[in-house]
Design brief:
With 449 residues, the protein is of the alpha+beta class. The protein contains 8 helices and 26 strands. The strands form 6 sheets. Strands 11-10-15-14-13-12 form a 6-stranded mixed β-sheet, with no helix packed on it. α1 crosses α5 and α5 packs antiparallel against α6.
Amino acid sequence: MGLKRKLFMTSVVLMLIAILPGLPPKTVFPFKPINIAPVRPLTGVLAPNQLINGAERLHEGGLLQPEGVIVRGNVTYVTVYGGKILELGDQGSVRTVAKLGPECVGTYSERICGRPLGIDFDTKGNNLIVADPYLGIWQVHIKTGEKKLLVSKDKAIIEDGTGQSSKSTQRSITTRQPNIPNGVAVARNGDFYWSDTASDFIFEDAIQAVLCNPSGRLLHYSRADGKSRVLIDEVYGANGVVLSPDESFVLVGELGGQLIRRYYLKGPKAGTHDVFIDGLPGAVDNLNGDASGFWVGLVIAADENNPSFIAMLAKFPNLRRLLVRLFVLAEAPFRLWYDTTGSDFALWVTHHIGHLGGLVGLFPDRGTVLRMDWEGNIVLALHNDDTSSHVISQAVPLGKDQLLLGSPVNQWLGRVKLTPDTLAALQRQAQAAPSSAKASTGTPPKEEL
């Protein structure tokens, strides 16, 4: 068979795989073109700099994929691979607060032993609220490690609130269970808002998930009822979540859409949502805020010279469907092998096919975190170009002049010292913040609870 004929036959087979009905996977939403706003140029406030170059590597080799980070006083809490939540003391101590799942058999067994992502302090007790994409959302006591499952992966009660016309309208219970619990933000009354990244694939198959049409969600969990309600559906890679200081709205980051969405909780727009900001120069990961603004971690940089592969493929549904089906077909025999024999090798293969971490070598070297105000303005962009701590999932202030940098791929927690100019800009922003944001309620900050 000649080369031309081989190419023709290959093209026919690929075309059939792409368009034939009935082939896996069966997705929640059909493959359609997706519109993603062009990325903003790296000029003005976004201009390249080296403000977070030379990150110090804390606990190098001892923190595997420290994705979620929160700070209370001199103590830092991080979520790491293997279902663990760790407490880092200011003198270099490390304490395991809790272990969510069974022990790991290797770095490829996260779907079994867990990989917690989002984390926030509880406002009703000395607890952490932790989201694990495989094991659900948990309440964990900081001192004792006592655990309570709040949102199960297979028995969650979820109300579809996206079609609500009034509070009296009967809500329907959906059978669409959470698939990738990711970000979490706790309200003053103990309820929390959380994100479900996608419904079509599990977390270790993130490449397939982002190639499908958006199926992520922003949800509200009621501690009184033990139920969740969908606020926004079809979010493209729902990720970090943060509440405004007066809790009048909640924000959710989109990894695929490179934007942040806003859902109004109070006021004349309550129950509606809009795009808070789009065209960001990277995939949005975790969000964490304070009275004057919030920090945005951009986990995969994107710009005019380094376009997002998600954005490039977004308008081509047939090509995305072909790629997803090829991933599924490649993985299927190994999944069957693992399910029938429990083979470690089969588990290793199924983990790596479609795992976003396998593409890290192709990511741009730029690491970026943004500082934004609650009006949707970018106040600061802090970049690095030395890969000292790129692929940044979260940026969290530590003390008066330092910033911690979480990452879903590193084996350390990054720490950088902020420059005097950066600190001055943050001080100006704090002084310019509306007084309503600085003192919206009489509730003490979470770190004082």
